[in-house]
Amino acid sequence: MSSSFRGGLRATNQRTKATPSASATSSTNTASSARPRPSDKLNPKTIDPFAEPRRSPSAFSAVYSRGGIPCRLVHGSVKHNLQWERLPETIPFDPLLITLAEGLKETRHPYTFVSQEGFKELLMVPGAKEKVLPILPKVTAALKGALESLGIIKSKIPTYCSTCS
User: Fold this and answer.
1) Is the pTM of this model over 0.70?
2) Which of 19, 115, 131, 141 could be bridged to 103 by S-S, CB 3.0 to 4.6 A?
């Protein structure tokens, strides 16, 4: 500890003893806490370059987390599968297929697998052509957005470590 710090502590203690009222003591403490310290100039606020970027969840991840997509990921020992809560033939395509198409731009597990497999499985359903035609412009716009996404391109490029094994 430095001598100037000790002196400051004594002066504060002497002020506290000199003033009998509690309100004067609390006003002294709040005034000293509101004042910036001289050492604050030496410690500028920085961000951690290695931290996960904070971003709001995408529309697909929010819908999936709330249970808005009627399927769940079944983890197998080698292969993953989707388990549908209802038969895919009975599910209305209007909100679901568009949401799955928007999820194709996801880069994190389980969203990538659920969006890709769910989209494929819904398109393989008998009678899918008749269900997709009315919503084709919306699906096309979502697919275009997924293709324009830079994140999905980066996630598909092999890195040095992935080619070694």
Assistant:
1) no
2) 115
